[in-house]
Structure formats: structure tokens, C-alpha cells
Amino acid sequence: MNFINKFLRHSSDNFKNIFIRKQYMKTVSYVLQRSQHVPSTTASNKIIGYWFLTCGGMVYVAVSLGGITRLTESGLSMVNWKLFGERMPSDNDSWQEEFKKYQEFPEYKVLNKDMSLEEFKKIWWMEYAHRMWGRLIGAAFFLPATYFWATKRFNKNTKKRILMLGGLIGAQGLMGWHMVKSGLEKNLSDPNDIPRVSQYRLAAHLSFALALYVGFLHTALDYLAPIKINNMNFFSSQNIQSQYKKIKKLRFFAQSCKGLIFLTAVSGAFVAGLDAGLIYNSFPKMAESWIPSEIFHLQPILRNFTENPATVQFDHRLLGISTLCFTTYVGIYSIKYKLHRRACIAAVAMTVVAYLQASLGILTLLNQVPIPLAASHQAGSVALLSAVTWYCHETKFINKLKTMKMF
């Protein structure tokens, strides 16, 4: 009798799971068909996808250029800003005139009194390249976007993203100049102050750039790597409901990881803005302590998190370690839960890049922020953000499946 009861119970569970699988696949098909933000993979749409990817790649280069500009202290060499670009000095007289403009501002008077014209040219060209690259991004985005919009190549959801991305590009340009202006203040509040851009505006400038990059990459993936039905059949075990809950939890950790990576990168802007990487050049301890003694030196206490170099570096370390733990968890459990192949590759890539990025950060700190290492560390943060964006894209439909009644 016990054997018969077990057999009937097992058969009932099997029939139930078969029914759930069929309902699951029907729901997946419905989700994919009704989702307006998943374009078809036609040749025409692939062109749009590659265009988004190109714009994203250009933003990646801009972030890297911006990091080098900051590290070489070139950002305040151009003291004027024009929407459509500044004229390049064409002869020695025009270079001298540009140099005289720079000499009127605190960075020259306080830090670069002995700078020669040739040295000035180097930092001027660095800032000029960064600005012109930003304008090139604008042209590469707005001109094709206007054409694609006019020829009705965008769906409703993509049009919303175009407006959002266009707004971010404009805001990014304005924030860049707003940031530079903060370093051109002629009246320093303290004679011992060092002329530098506001760390708040620097962080905002980087935040806009990262948001723009993620927007481009995510949209490009929608066009070039749409989720397929056979890629969504994650549930290999018999207990489908339990498997779904586990994967949903994993996706929550992945989204949290994405937020942590973004926050860690932005905290890096505060480290750069305050030159906080030039103190406590040891790891894992900060000198002889795990927590620096001056961590709450400023009053009110909240100022320490954005204005105290020791606290800012401590926060960046803590966020970096937390990010590493989260990415490791997501990477391991993505393979354990047998997600589809692309999701597993993205998870492994994310984990590998996270460890490389952490290693670069430690090496940069121990070597007192040499430019090649520091620039690689900033570029690495965008690479890590790329990997987690890819992973989140591969698992984004899991949340949509919560509407399935059998769950």
C-alpha cells in the first residue's frame, strides 16, 4: 500500500510539473512577443544595435580619457568653453595668448609657476582631446538618431530611450564645464588650499557618463542579443517553483551587484577629487590600523564621507571588497543553478573582471597612484560594469515570469 501511495504521489508530481512546464513556455512566448523593447534580429535592427554599441564604446573611451585628464592634471588648462568647440592655437602667438589666459588662474599661480610653454601644450592637448571626443559622441549619436527616427526605425520604447540618452549627453557636457569652473575660482577660501575641481561635480560628471554608457550597452544588447525562448528554460530540476525562487533571488543579487559597482566607481571619483589615493598606501590595513583614527575628524560627521580623504578611501575599500563578494556569489551560483550558456559566460566574465579590478586597485594604492595603473583601474571599473550589465540583461525576464499564476 505504501508503495502504491508513493507511486501515485510521484506520478501526480510529474504530471503537475509537465503541466507547469507547458504553461511556463506559453508564458515565455507571450512575454517575448508582447515585450516592445525586444526588437527582431533583422539586418536593419542589427545596424541600429551596432550603432548603439559604437556610441557605448565611445563613451567608454571618453571615461578613460577623462581619467587620464584628471591624473595628468590637465583639466584646468582650458579656461573657456564653447558649445561647438574651441579654436586650436595655430602659431606661437596664439599659443602664448592661450598660455597667458591660463596664467591668470590659481592652478598656475599656486602649482605651476615654473611651467614652460611646451609643458602647457601637453596638458592643453589632453583636455582638448577629451572635450572634442565628447562632442564627437554627440555627433555620432544625434545625427544617426535623427535619421532613424525620421525613417521610423525605432519602436515606442526605443524612442523613450533615445530621448533619455540624448538628455544625458547634453547634461554630461554641461556638467563637465560646471565641474571645470569649480577649479577656476580665483578667490581661494584658504591660502593653503590647492586649486582643484569640486569632488562633488567630478562624481556627478562620472555618474552621468556611467549612466550613459549603461544605457547604450543595454539597448545595444536588446538589439544584438535578444533573449530566446530556448535560453529561458532555466528550470532543469523537477521542483520548478523552488528553482524559480532561487534564480529570482540570484537576479536580485546581480542587480544589487550592479548598483554596488556603480556606487564604487562613483566613490572612486571622490578618491580622485581629494587625492585620497596618495595617503595610506598599504593594504589590507591603513597604516597600522584597520580603521583610520581620523575617520570622523570633520564636523558634522556626514562631511567626512565626501570631504575627508581618509574616510573616502576607507569607504572605497569597503565598497570594493563588498562588490568582490557579491560578484563571486553571483558567479558561483549562476553555474550551480544551471542558467543558460550566455548567462553563465557573463557571470564568469563578471567574476574574473572583478578580481582583476580589485588587483588593479590594490596595486594602484601600493604604488602611490602611478598614471598607467590608475588609468587602467578606472577603465576596469567600466569593464566590470559592462559585464554585470550583460549578465543582468541575460536574466532580465525572470522578473516578468512572476506574473505566472502557477508560481
UniProtKB/TrEMBL annotation:
It is a multi-pass membrane protein. GO terms for biological process: heme biosynthetic process. It holds the Pfam family COX15-CtaA. It catalyses: Fe(II)-heme o + 2 A + H2O = Fe(II)-heme a + 2 AH2. GO terms for cellular component: membrane. It is found in: Membrane. Its cofactor is heme b. PANTHER family: CYTOCHROME C OXIDASE ASSEMBLY PROTEIN COX15, CYTOCHROME C OXIDASE ASSEMBLY PROTEIN COX15 HOMOLOG. This is Cytochrome c oxidase assembly protein COX15 homolog. It comes from Trichogramma kaykai.
